[in-house]
Task: inverse folding
Protein backbone atom coordinates (compact mmCIF):
# COMPACT_ATOMS: atom_id res chain seq x y z
CA UNK A 1 0.00 0.00 0.00
CA UNK A 2 2.79 2.40 0.90
CA UNK A 3 4.45 1.74 -2.43
CA UNK A 4 1.24 2.45 -4.34
CA UNK A 5 0.62 5.60 -2.32
CA UNK A 6 4.10 6.87 -3.07
CA UNK A 7 3.78 6.16 -6.76
CA UNK A 8 0.44 7.93 -6.82
CA UNK A 9 1.88 10.99 -5.08
CA UNK A 10 4.83 11.07 -7.49
CA UNK A 11 2.47 10.89 -10.45
CA UNK A 12 0.31 13.64 -8.99
CA UNK A 13 3.38 15.88 -8.80
CA UNK A 14 4.09 15.25 -12.48
CA UNK A 15 0.50 16.01 -13.45
CA UNK A 16 0.65 19.23 -11.44
CA UNK A 17 3.66 20.35 -13.48
CA UNK A 18 1.77 19.73 -16.72
CA UNK A 19 -1.26 21.58 -15.35
CA UNK A 20 0.90 24.53 -14.32
CA UNK A 21 2.42 24.72 -17.78
CA UNK A 22 -1.07 24.64 -19.31
CA UNK A 23 -2.29 27.34 -16.93
CA UNK A 24 0.68 29.57 -17.80
CA UNK A 25 -0.04 29.02 -21.49
CA UNK A 26 -3.66 30.03 -20.83
CA UNK A 27 -2.57 33.33 -19.28
CA UNK A 28 -0.21 34.25 -22.09
CA UNK A 29 -2.52 33.14 -24.92
CA UNK A 30 -5.29 35.24 -23.37
CA UNK A 31 -3.26 38.45 -23.57
CA UNK A 32 -3.45 39.06 -27.32
CA UNK A 33 -7.21 38.51 -27.63
CA UNK A 34 -7.89 40.69 -24.58
CA UNK A 35 -5.66 43.57 -25.66
CA UNK A 36 -6.97 43.52 -29.26
CA UNK A 37 -10.53 43.43 -27.92
CA UNK A 38 -9.65 46.57 -25.96
CA UNK A 39 -10.93 44.80 -22.85
CA UNK A 40 -8.90 46.52 -20.12
CA UNK A 41 -10.42 44.46 -17.29
CA UNK A 42 -9.62 41.16 -19.03
CA UNK A 43 -6.06 42.37 -19.66
CA UNK A 44 -5.70 43.49 -16.05
CA UNK A 45 -6.73 40.13 -14.60
CA UNK A 46 -3.68 38.51 -16.25
CA UNK A 47 -1.20 40.63 -14.29
CA UNK A 48 -0.24 40.76 -10.62
CA UNK A 49 -1.38 44.01 -8.94
CA UNK A 50 2.21 45.26 -8.72
CA UNK A 51 3.31 43.92 -12.11
CA UNK A 52 5.81 45.77 -14.29
CA UNK A 53 5.53 45.97 -18.08
CA UNK A 54 8.95 47.07 -19.28
CA UNK A 55 9.01 48.00 -22.99
CA UNK A 56 11.85 49.60 -24.94
CA UNK A 57 9.55 52.62 -25.40
CA UNK A 58 8.52 52.98 -21.76
CA UNK A 59 7.75 51.27 -18.48
CA UNK A 60 4.31 50.73 -16.90
CA UNK A 61 4.28 50.16 -13.15
CA UNK A 62 1.31 48.31 -11.70
CA UNK A 63 -1.87 46.79 -13.10
CA UNK A 64 -3.66 50.14 -13.12
CA UNK A 65 -1.05 51.65 -15.45
CA UNK A 66 -1.39 48.66 -17.78
CA UNK A 67 -5.19 48.82 -17.96
CA UNK A 68 -4.95 52.60 -18.47
CA UNK A 69 -2.73 51.93 -21.49
CA UNK A 70 -5.44 49.66 -22.96
CA UNK A 71 -8.16 52.28 -22.47
CA UNK A 72 -6.32 55.22 -23.98
CA UNK A 73 -4.44 56.52 -27.00
CA UNK A 74 -2.40 55.32 -28.87
CA UNK A 75 -3.62 51.76 -28.09
CA UNK A 76 -7.26 52.62 -28.83
CA UNK A 77 -6.17 54.20 -32.14
CA UNK A 78 -4.36 51.02 -33.09
CA UNK A 79 -7.30 48.72 -32.44
CA UNK A 80 -9.76 51.03 -34.19
CA UNK A 81 -7.44 51.22 -37.19
CA UNK A 82 -7.03 47.44 -37.16
CA UNK A 83 -4.24 45.62 -35.36
CA UNK A 84 -3.18 42.27 -33.95
CA UNK A 85 -0.82 41.46 -31.09
CA UNK A 86 0.53 37.97 -31.80
CA UNK A 87 2.96 35.65 -30.02
CA UNK A 88 4.84 32.62 -31.28
CA UNK A 89 5.26 29.32 -29.36
CA UNK A 90 6.07 30.10 -25.76
CA UNK A 91 9.12 28.54 -24.11
CA UNK A 92 8.16 27.90 -20.48
CA UNK A 93 10.65 27.25 -17.66
CA UNK A 94 8.72 26.31 -14.54
CA UNK A 95 10.32 26.48 -11.10
CA UNK A 96 7.76 25.70 -8.41
CA UNK A 97 5.62 28.78 -7.86
CA UNK A 98 7.41 30.94 -10.41
CA UNK A 99 8.09 30.62 -14.11
CA UNK A 100 9.85 32.35 -16.98
CA UNK A 101 8.32 32.32 -20.46
CA UNK A 102 10.19 33.51 -23.55
CA UNK A 103 8.83 34.13 -27.04
CA UNK A 104 8.59 36.59 -29.92
CA UNK A 105 5.73 39.00 -30.43
CA UNK A 106 4.42 40.73 -33.53
CA UNK A 107 2.27 43.83 -33.71
CA UNK A 108 0.64 43.93 -37.13
CA UNK A 109 -1.33 46.98 -38.23
CA UNK A 110 -3.66 47.39 -41.17
CA UNK A 111 -2.39 49.52 -44.03
CA UNK A 112 -4.79 52.30 -44.85
CA UNK A 113 -3.78 52.58 -48.49
CA UNK A 114 -3.98 48.93 -49.48
CA UNK A 115 -5.64 45.69 -48.54
CA UNK A 116 -2.93 44.24 -46.29
CA UNK A 117 -1.09 44.60 -42.98
CA UNK A 118 2.42 45.66 -42.01
CA UNK A 119 4.56 44.17 -39.25
CA UNK A 120 4.96 47.33 -37.27
CA UNK A 121 6.87 45.84 -34.34
CA UNK A 122 8.64 42.48 -33.85
CA UNK A 123 9.95 42.03 -30.32
CA UNK A 124 11.75 39.68 -27.97
CA UNK A 125 9.69 38.93 -24.86
CA UNK A 126 10.43 37.63 -21.40
CA UNK A 127 7.46 37.03 -19.13
CA UNK A 128 8.02 36.36 -15.44
CA UNK A 129 5.06 34.74 -13.70
CA UNK A 130 4.14 33.73 -10.17
CA UNK A 131 1.41 31.65 -8.57
CA UNK A 132 -0.56 34.13 -6.45
CA UNK A 133 -3.48 32.84 -4.36
CA UNK A 134 -3.48 29.72 -6.54
CA UNK A 135 -3.58 31.53 -9.89
CA UNK A 136 -0.74 32.24 -12.31
CA UNK A 137 -0.21 35.95 -12.94
CA UNK A 138 2.34 37.92 -14.94
CA UNK A 139 4.65 39.75 -12.53
CA UNK A 140 6.95 41.28 -15.15
CA UNK A 141 7.04 41.46 -18.92
CA UNK A 142 10.14 42.75 -20.60
CA UNK A 143 9.90 43.39 -24.36
CA UNK A 144 12.64 44.71 -26.62
CA UNK A 145 12.31 45.57 -30.29
CA UNK A 146 14.30 43.26 -32.56
CA UNK A 147 16.16 46.22 -34.02
CA UNK A 148 19.61 44.70 -33.89
CA UNK A 149 20.38 46.02 -30.42
CA UNK A 150 22.15 43.93 -27.79
CA UNK A 151 19.17 44.33 -25.42
CA UNK A 152 16.90 42.02 -27.40
CA UNK A 153 19.65 39.44 -27.92
CA UNK A 154 20.52 39.42 -24.22
CA UNK A 155 16.87 39.00 -23.26
CA UNK A 156 16.50 36.02 -25.61
CA UNK A 157 19.79 34.54 -24.43
CA UNK A 158 18.39 34.34 -20.90
CA UNK A 159 15.61 31.94 -22.00
CA UNK A 160 17.73 28.92 -21.16
CA UNK A 161 19.13 30.21 -17.86
CA UNK B 1 -8.16 0.80 -0.91
CA UNK B 2 -11.20 2.98 -1.49
CA UNK B 3 -9.12 6.05 -0.79
CA UNK B 4 -6.47 5.01 -3.30
CA UNK B 5 -9.10 4.16 -5.90
CA UNK B 6 -10.70 7.56 -5.50
CA UNK B 7 -7.39 9.36 -5.78
CA UNK B 8 -6.56 7.37 -8.89
CA UNK B 9 -9.90 8.21 -10.49
CA UNK B 10 -9.48 11.90 -9.67
CA UNK B 11 -6.01 11.88 -11.21
CA UNK B 12 -7.33 10.12 -14.29
CA UNK B 13 -9.88 12.90 -14.75
CA UNK B 14 -7.11 15.50 -14.60
CA UNK B 15 -5.01 13.61 -17.13
CA UNK B 16 -8.03 13.37 -19.45
CA UNK B 17 -8.36 17.16 -19.39
CA UNK B 18 -4.72 17.54 -20.39
CA UNK B 19 -5.15 14.94 -23.14
CA UNK B 20 -8.25 16.73 -24.44
CA UNK B 21 -6.37 20.01 -24.59
CA UNK B 22 -3.53 18.33 -26.47
CA UNK B 23 -5.97 16.69 -28.89
CA UNK B 24 -7.68 20.04 -29.57
CA UNK B 25 -4.25 21.59 -30.17
CA UNK B 26 -3.51 18.76 -32.61
CA UNK B 27 -6.65 19.51 -34.63
CA UNK B 28 -5.99 23.24 -34.86
CA UNK B 29 -2.25 22.94 -35.57
CA UNK B 30 -3.07 20.48 -38.37
CA UNK B 31 -5.28 22.99 -40.20
CA UNK B 32 -2.57 25.30 -41.57
CA UNK B 33 -0.31 22.54 -42.94
CA UNK B 34 -3.31 20.75 -44.53
CA UNK B 35 -4.76 23.86 -46.16
CA UNK B 36 -1.38 25.06 -47.45
CA UNK B 37 -0.69 21.56 -48.79
CA UNK B 38 -3.98 21.87 -50.67
CA UNK B 39 -5.00 18.54 -49.14
CA UNK B 40 -8.80 18.86 -49.12
CA UNK B 41 -9.37 15.46 -47.51
CA UNK B 42 -6.97 16.22 -44.64
CA UNK B 43 -8.66 19.58 -44.12
CA UNK B 44 -12.09 17.97 -44.20
CA UNK B 45 -11.26 15.42 -41.52
CA UNK B 46 -10.70 18.26 -39.01
CA UNK B 47 -14.32 19.49 -39.26
CA UNK B 48 -17.64 18.01 -38.19
CA UNK B 49 -19.80 17.00 -41.18
CA UNK B 50 -22.20 19.90 -40.51
CA UNK B 51 -19.53 22.42 -39.53
CA UNK B 52 -19.82 26.10 -40.36
CA UNK B 53 -16.85 28.25 -41.42
CA UNK B 54 -18.02 31.82 -41.00
CA UNK B 55 -15.61 34.38 -42.48
CA UNK B 56 -16.14 38.11 -42.93
CA UNK B 57 -16.02 37.49 -46.69
CA UNK B 58 -18.52 34.62 -46.76
CA UNK B 59 -19.92 31.57 -45.01
CA UNK B 60 -19.29 27.92 -45.85
CA UNK B 61 -21.90 25.46 -44.63
CA UNK B 62 -20.80 21.86 -44.15
CA UNK B 63 -17.59 19.92 -44.63
CA UNK B 64 -18.20 19.50 -48.36
CA UNK B 65 -18.30 23.28 -48.88
CA UNK B 66 -15.03 23.63 -46.94
CA UNK B 67 -13.19 20.95 -48.90
CA UNK B 68 -14.55 22.45 -52.14
CA UNK B 69 -12.99 25.77 -51.12
CA UNK B 70 -9.61 24.03 -50.74
CA UNK B 71 -9.85 22.40 -54.18
CA UNK B 72 -10.83 25.51 -56.13
CA UNK B 73 -9.95 29.11 -56.96
CA UNK B 74 -8.94 31.42 -55.34
CA UNK B 75 -7.43 29.08 -52.72
CA UNK B 76 -5.53 27.04 -55.32
CA UNK B 77 -4.18 30.28 -56.83
CA UNK B 78 -2.90 31.36 -53.41
CA UNK B 79 -1.02 28.15 -52.70
CA UNK B 80 0.48 28.00 -56.19
CA UNK B 81 1.61 31.59 -55.86
CA UNK B 82 3.04 30.87 -52.40
CA UNK B 83 1.15 31.37 -49.18
CA UNK B 84 1.03 30.39 -45.53
CA UNK B 85 -1.93 30.19 -43.15
CA UNK B 86 -0.50 30.69 -39.65
CA UNK B 87 -1.99 30.79 -36.16
CA UNK B 88 -0.59 32.14 -32.92
CA UNK B 89 -0.81 30.41 -29.50
CA UNK B 90 -4.31 29.03 -29.07
CA UNK B 91 -6.32 29.90 -25.97
CA UNK B 92 -8.39 26.80 -25.15
CA UNK B 93 -11.44 26.77 -22.85
CA UNK B 94 -12.51 23.18 -22.34
CA UNK B 95 -15.99 22.33 -21.04
CA UNK B 96 -16.52 18.57 -21.03
CA UNK B 97 -17.28 17.47 -24.58
CA UNK B 98 -17.10 20.94 -26.12
CA UNK B 99 -14.44 23.61 -26.24
CA UNK B 100 -13.80 27.13 -27.48
CA UNK B 101 -10.40 28.10 -28.87
CA UNK B 102 -9.43 31.69 -29.62
CA UNK B 103 -6.37 32.97 -31.49
CA UNK B 104 -5.12 35.21 -34.28
CA UNK B 105 -4.44 34.03 -37.81
CA UNK B 106 -2.19 35.40 -40.53
CA UNK B 107 -2.39 34.73 -44.25
CA UNK B 108 0.95 35.63 -45.77
CA UNK B 109 1.40 35.66 -49.54
CA UNK B 110 4.57 35.82 -51.57
CA UNK B 111 5.25 39.07 -53.37
CA UNK B 112 5.83 38.53 -57.05
CA UNK B 113 8.00 41.60 -57.53
CA UNK B 114 10.43 41.06 -54.69
CA UNK B 115 11.92 38.38 -52.50
CA UNK B 116 9.54 38.63 -49.53
CA UNK B 117 5.97 38.08 -48.34
CA UNK B 118 3.13 40.40 -47.40
CA UNK B 119 0.66 39.90 -44.55
CA UNK B 120 -2.44 39.84 -46.69
CA UNK B 121 -4.95 39.09 -43.93
CA UNK B 122 -4.69 39.20 -40.12
CA UNK B 123 -7.82 37.93 -38.40
CA UNK B 124 -9.45 37.21 -35.06
CA UNK B 125 -10.55 33.58 -34.77
CA UNK B 126 -12.98 31.68 -32.61
CA UNK B 127 -13.08 27.91 -33.05
CA UNK B 128 -15.88 25.91 -31.46
CA UNK B 129 -15.13 22.20 -31.13
CA UNK B 130 -16.97 19.10 -29.99
CA UNK B 131 -16.02 15.54 -29.18
CA UNK B 132 -17.80 13.45 -31.81
CA UNK B 133 -17.47 9.65 -31.67
CA UNK B 134 -14.45 10.12 -29.43
CA UNK B 135 -12.62 12.58 -31.71
CA UNK B 136 -12.38 16.34 -31.45
CA UNK B 137 -13.77 18.13 -34.51
CA UNK B 138 -14.28 21.80 -35.39
CA UNK B 139 -18.02 22.53 -35.41
CA UNK B 140 -17.74 26.26 -36.15
CA UNK B 141 -14.96 28.67 -37.01
CA UNK B 142 -15.68 32.36 -36.99
CA UNK B 143 -12.98 34.63 -38.41
CA UNK B 144 -13.10 38.41 -38.69
CA UNK B 145 -10.50 40.63 -40.32
CA UNK B 146 -8.66 42.87 -37.84
CA UNK B 147 -9.70 45.94 -39.81
CA UNK B 148 -10.78 48.05 -36.86
CA UNK B 149 -14.38 46.86 -36.93
CA UNK B 150 -16.32 46.01 -33.78
CA UNK B 151 -16.91 42.45 -35.05
CA UNK B 152 -13.32 41.35 -34.53
CA UNK B 153 -13.09 43.01 -31.12
CA UNK B 154 -16.32 41.41 -29.93
CA UNK B 155 -15.18 37.98 -31.11
CA UNK B 156 -11.90 38.34 -29.20
CA UNK B 157 -13.71 39.68 -26.15
CA UNK B 158 -15.67 36.43 -25.93
CA UNK B 159 -12.48 34.38 -25.40
CA UNK B 160 -12.78 34.66 -21.64
CA UNK B 161 -16.53 34.03 -21.41
CA UNK C 1 -3.91 -4.54 -5.60
CA UNK C 2 -3.02 -5.88 -9.04
CA UNK C 3 -5.88 -3.94 -10.56
CA UNK C 4 -4.74 -0.72 -8.91
CA UNK C 5 -1.14 -1.31 -9.94
CA UNK C 6 -2.18 -1.87 -13.54
CA UNK C 7 -4.30 1.26 -13.59
CA UNK C 8 -1.43 3.24 -12.12
CA UNK C 9 1.00 1.95 -14.75
CA UNK C 10 -1.46 2.75 -17.53
CA UNK C 11 -1.88 6.28 -16.21
CA UNK C 12 1.88 6.69 -15.93
CA UNK C 13 2.21 5.80 -19.62
CA UNK C 14 -0.34 8.48 -20.50
CA UNK C 15 1.46 11.09 -18.40
CA UNK C 16 4.74 10.16 -20.09
CA UNK C 17 3.20 10.90 -23.49
CA UNK C 18 2.10 14.34 -22.29
CA UNK C 19 5.55 14.98 -20.83
CA UNK C 20 7.23 13.94 -24.07
CA UNK C 21 5.02 16.32 -26.04
CA UNK C 22 5.87 19.13 -23.63
CA UNK C 23 9.59 18.34 -23.86
CA UNK C 24 9.45 18.39 -27.67
CA UNK C 25 7.63 21.72 -27.51
CA UNK C 26 10.39 23.00 -25.22
CA UNK C 27 13.09 22.09 -27.75
CA UNK C 28 11.33 23.72 -30.68
CA UNK C 29 10.26 26.86 -28.80
CA UNK C 30 13.86 27.30 -27.63
CA UNK C 31 15.21 27.44 -31.18
CA UNK C 32 13.99 30.91 -32.16
CA UNK C 33 15.18 32.68 -29.00
CA UNK C 34 18.57 30.93 -29.19
CA UNK C 35 19.17 31.67 -32.87
CA UNK C 36 18.05 35.31 -32.55
CA UNK C 37 20.28 35.69 -29.50
CA UNK C 38 23.13 34.47 -31.69
CA UNK C 39 23.87 31.87 -29.02
CA UNK C 40 25.49 29.11 -31.07
CA UNK C 41 26.00 26.79 -28.09
CA UNK C 42 22.34 27.04 -27.04
CA UNK C 43 21.28 26.37 -30.64
CA UNK C 44 23.65 23.41 -30.89
CA UNK C 45 22.30 21.72 -27.77
CA UNK C 46 18.89 21.37 -29.45
CA UNK C 47 20.22 19.16 -32.26
CA UNK C 48 21.62 15.62 -32.34
CA UNK C 49 25.37 15.55 -33.10
CA UNK C 50 24.73 14.14 -36.59
CA UNK C 51 21.62 16.21 -37.28
CA UNK C 52 20.79 17.50 -40.76
CA UNK C 53 19.28 20.94 -41.43
CA UNK C 54 17.94 20.77 -44.97
CA UNK C 55 16.85 24.18 -46.30
CA UNK C 56 15.82 25.06 -49.85
CA UNK C 57 18.92 27.26 -50.01
CA UNK C 58 21.39 24.69 -48.71
CA UNK C 59 22.02 21.74 -46.42
CA UNK C 60 23.96 21.74 -43.15
CA UNK C 61 25.33 18.38 -42.04
CA UNK C 62 26.02 17.94 -38.33
CA UNK C 63 25.72 20.09 -35.24
CA UNK C 64 29.05 21.79 -35.91
CA UNK C 65 27.86 23.06 -39.29
CA UNK C 66 24.67 24.41 -37.68
CA UNK C 67 26.49 26.25 -34.90
CA UNK C 68 28.96 27.60 -37.46
CA UNK C 69 25.98 29.06 -39.37
CA UNK C 70 24.87 30.88 -36.21
CA UNK C 71 28.35 32.35 -35.61
CA UNK C 72 28.95 33.63 -39.12
CA UNK C 73 27.62 35.77 -41.95
CA UNK C 74 24.89 36.16 -43.15
CA UNK C 75 23.20 35.07 -39.90
CA UNK C 76 25.18 37.52 -37.77
CA UNK C 77 24.29 40.30 -40.22
CA UNK C 78 20.59 39.49 -39.88
CA UNK C 79 20.59 39.59 -36.08
CA UNK C 80 22.63 42.79 -35.94
CA UNK C 81 20.28 44.40 -38.45
CA UNK C 82 17.26 43.19 -36.45
CA UNK C 83 15.45 39.93 -37.14
CA UNK C 84 13.12 37.36 -35.63
CA UNK C 85 12.76 33.65 -36.38
CA UNK C 86 9.19 32.74 -35.44
CA UNK C 87 7.16 29.52 -35.54
CA UNK C 88 3.43 28.97 -35.40
CA UNK C 89 1.66 26.26 -33.32
CA UNK C 90 3.56 23.01 -33.71
CA UNK C 91 1.74 19.86 -34.79
CA UNK C 92 3.42 16.99 -32.94
CA UNK C 93 3.08 13.31 -33.88
CA UNK C 94 4.76 11.22 -31.22
CA UNK C 95 5.77 7.62 -31.86
CA UNK C 96 7.64 6.19 -28.89
CA UNK C 97 11.22 7.48 -29.01
CA UNK C 98 10.80 9.48 -32.21
CA UNK C 99 8.49 12.27 -33.28
CA UNK C 100 7.60 14.44 -36.24
CA UNK C 101 6.66 18.09 -35.75
CA UNK C 102 5.21 20.25 -38.52
CA UNK C 103 4.67 24.01 -38.56
CA UNK C 104 5.25 27.24 -40.43
CA UNK C 105 8.16 29.59 -39.80
CA UNK C 106 8.61 33.28 -40.46
CA UNK C 107 11.84 35.21 -40.73
CA UNK C 108 11.06 38.87 -40.22
CA UNK C 109 13.75 41.51 -40.78
CA UNK C 110 13.77 45.14 -39.82
CA UNK C 111 13.41 47.63 -42.65
CA UNK C 112 16.21 50.15 -42.67
CA UNK C 113 14.21 52.87 -44.38
CA UNK C 114 11.10 52.84 -42.19
CA UNK C 115 9.88 51.89 -38.76
CA UNK C 116 8.64 48.37 -39.50
CA UNK C 117 9.63 44.84 -40.47
CA UNK C 118 9.24 42.77 -43.61
CA UNK C 119 8.40 39.05 -43.79
CA UNK C 120 11.52 38.03 -45.62
CA UNK C 121 10.89 34.28 -45.61
CA UNK C 122 7.79 32.18 -44.83
CA UNK C 123 8.50 28.46 -44.87
CA UNK C 124 7.01 25.03 -44.36
CA UNK C 125 8.88 23.05 -41.69
CA UNK C 126 9.18 19.39 -40.79
CA UNK C 127 11.21 18.58 -37.68
CA UNK C 128 12.18 14.98 -36.97
CA UNK C 129 13.18 14.35 -33.36
CA UNK C 130 14.51 11.44 -31.34
CA UNK C 131 15.00 10.70 -27.68
CA UNK C 132 18.77 10.40 -27.25
CA UNK C 133 20.15 9.53 -23.80
CA UNK C 134 16.81 10.56 -22.33
CA UNK C 135 16.63 13.97 -24.03
CA UNK C 136 14.68 15.02 -27.11
CA UNK C 137 16.92 16.32 -29.91
CA UNK C 138 16.24 17.46 -33.47
CA UNK C 139 17.69 14.88 -35.87
CA UNK C 140 16.50 16.54 -39.08
CA UNK C 141 14.81 19.79 -40.01
CA UNK C 142 13.52 20.23 -43.51
CA UNK C 143 12.36 23.72 -44.46
CA UNK C 144 10.99 24.83 -47.82
CA UNK C 145 10.06 28.37 -48.82
CA UNK C 146 6.32 28.83 -49.39
CA UNK C 147 6.98 30.08 -52.91
CA UNK C 148 4.28 28.04 -54.64
CA UNK C 149 6.56 25.09 -55.33
CA UNK C 150 5.40 21.49 -54.90
CA UNK C 151 8.21 20.86 -52.38
CA UNK C 152 6.60 22.93 -49.64
CA UNK C 153 3.14 21.49 -50.28
CA UNK C 154 4.45 17.92 -50.19
CA UNK C 155 6.31 18.56 -46.94
CA UNK C 156 3.15 19.95 -45.33
CA UNK C 157 1.06 17.10 -46.72
CA UNK C 158 3.23 14.62 -44.81
CA UNK C 159 2.22 16.14 -41.44
CA UNK C 160 -0.63 13.68 -41.04
CA UNK C 161 1.24 10.58 -42.26
Result:
Amino acid sequence: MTDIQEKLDALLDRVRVLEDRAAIGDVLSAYGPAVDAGDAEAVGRLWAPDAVYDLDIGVMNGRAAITEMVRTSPHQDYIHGGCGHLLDPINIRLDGDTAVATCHSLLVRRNTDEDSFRVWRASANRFELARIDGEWKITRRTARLLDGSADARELLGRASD
Summary: Chain B has a mean pLDDT of 96.
